[in-house]
């Protein structure tokens, strides 16, 4: 219930009222402490505000922050990065929410792409370890010392004693110059990170599909009715690609089959996890083909019009019956048949293979 507390007549200041009343009245100990506390608090508030309160003013920012759409430089996927730039300085970033590649997310490397140029721990000048401590040296001293040492090694042991290793972070022009530099040095001992992950692709895929790189895109994964992953762990190694796998799994109700000796974070998302002995990838594939051919689940028209050499494959696959496959891989024949049936009944499918298989001598 609301009650009228005043008749509209101006009252004296609250602080003065409290002090005057306390001076003319006899009070007990509790009332005195209560009154003195209010008085002290009121005086403190009056002193702090100078007796008046002014309207707060928002601070104005001298600099403006603008966003610039860019591309992550870590790998070949091409994820969108939205850079936040203030006075020409890159101060923050967000993933591109409208990107068809990273779908509004970053992997761990992409999340740190700003640190390439602006990280506080980035090396800005040559450092040399002396007496257990890193010390700054001039560019001239660093170049002379390294150059003199390399010339000494070549003089004593020949040009092939130096190993030149390029980088996937180089541009085409930088890679070309690096290779020319090694040749000028007098050696063919020059290599590149892509040899590890791509040379096996060229050797295998170019000789089967006629093209030395991946044959499908992320969009094909979106249209998949079944997904088969072997030798890969995209949940940790390539989380951006896993986004597309999970999208197909959710939208198409596509069963996800993961083959790996370890129960990985990718395997945790699988509908069917196939654990097999390390190094037996090829035997596992032959075992799947055995069930496919045995039950007539292959696409006969596609093989007739598009595939050369399948007759030789059939001869090899015939050797890998369920008993032999289980002996080599450790995977029961019943599970192999179930996986093969799943792939046959859910078309089109996507087969994703990674370096867990290609880095083997028989990969």
TL;DR of this structure?
The chain is α/β, with parallel strands linked by helices and 363 residues long.
Walkthrough of the structure:
By secondary structure, the protein is an alpha/beta fold. It has 4 domains: 82-121, no CATH class; 123-152, no CATH class; 158-191, no CATH class; 201-358, Dimethylsulfoxide Reductase, domain 2 (3-Layer(aba) Sandwich). It has 16 helices and 11 strands. The protein has helices at 14-24, 29-49, 108-111, 115-118, 139-157, 172-185, 193-209, 218-222, 234-237, 239-251, 281-295, 300-306, 310-317, 322-329, 333-345, 355-358; strands at residues 65-71, 80-86, 89-95, 127-130, 133-136, 164-165, 190-191, 226-230, 256-259, 272-274, 349-353. Strands 10-9-8-11 form a 4-stranded parallel beta sheet. Strand 6, helix 6 (172-185) and strand 7 form a beta-alpha-beta unit. Helix 1 packs antiparallel against helix 2, helix 11 packs antiparallel against helix 14 and helix 11 (281-295) crosses helix 15.
Poorly predicted spans: 1-6, 12-20
CATH superfamily of the largest domain: Dimethylsulfoxide Reductase, domain 2
**Termini separation:** 85 Å
Strand content: 5-15%
Sheet of most strands: 4 strands, parallel
């Amino acid at each position: 219930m609301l009650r009228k507390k005043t008749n509209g007549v101006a009252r004296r200041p609250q602080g003065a009222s409290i002090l005057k009343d306390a001076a003319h009245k006899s009070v007990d100990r509790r009332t005195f402490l209560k009154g003195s506390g209010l008085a002290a608090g009121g005086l403190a508030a009056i002193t702090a505000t100078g007796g008046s309160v002014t309207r707060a003013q928002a601070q104005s920012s001298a600099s403006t922050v603008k966003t610039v759409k860019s591309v992550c430089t870590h790998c070949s996927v091409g994820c969108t990065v939205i850079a936040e730039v203030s006075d020409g300085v890159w101060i923050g970033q967000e993933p591109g929410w409208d990107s068809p590649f990273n779908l509004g997310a970053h992997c761990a490397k992409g999340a740190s792409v700003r640190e390439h140029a602006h990280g506080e721990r980035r090396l800005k000048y040559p450092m040399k370890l002396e007496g257990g401590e890193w010390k700054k040296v001039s560019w001239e001293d660093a170049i002379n010392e390294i150059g003199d040492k390399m010339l000494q090694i070549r003089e004593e042991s020949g040009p092939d004693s130096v190993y030149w290793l390029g980088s996937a972070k180089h541009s085409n022009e930088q890679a070309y110059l690096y290779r020319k530099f090694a040749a000028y040095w007098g050696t063919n001992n020059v290599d590149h990170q892509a040899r590890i992950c791509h040379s096996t692709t060229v050797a295998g895929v170019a000789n089967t599909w006629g093209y030395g790189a991946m044959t499908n895109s992320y969009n094909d994964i979106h249209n998949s009715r079944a997904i088969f992953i072997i030798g890969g762990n995209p949940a940790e190694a390539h989380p951006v690609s896993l986004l597309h796998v999970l999208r197909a799994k959710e939208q198409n109700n596509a069963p996800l089959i993961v083959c790996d000796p370890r129960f990985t974070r990718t395997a945790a998302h699988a509908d069917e996890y196939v654990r097999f002995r390390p190094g037996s990838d090829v035997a596992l594939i032959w075992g799947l083909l055995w069930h496919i051919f045995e039950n007539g689940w292959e696409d006969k028209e596609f093989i007739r019009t598009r595939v050369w050499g399948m007759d030789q494959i059939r001869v090899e696959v015939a050797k890998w019956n369920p008993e032999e496959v289980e002996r080599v891989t450790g995977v029961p024949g019943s599970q192999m048949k179930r996986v093969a049936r799943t792939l046959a009944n859910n078309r089109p499918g996507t087969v994703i293979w990674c370096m867990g298989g290609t880095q083997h001598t028989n990969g």
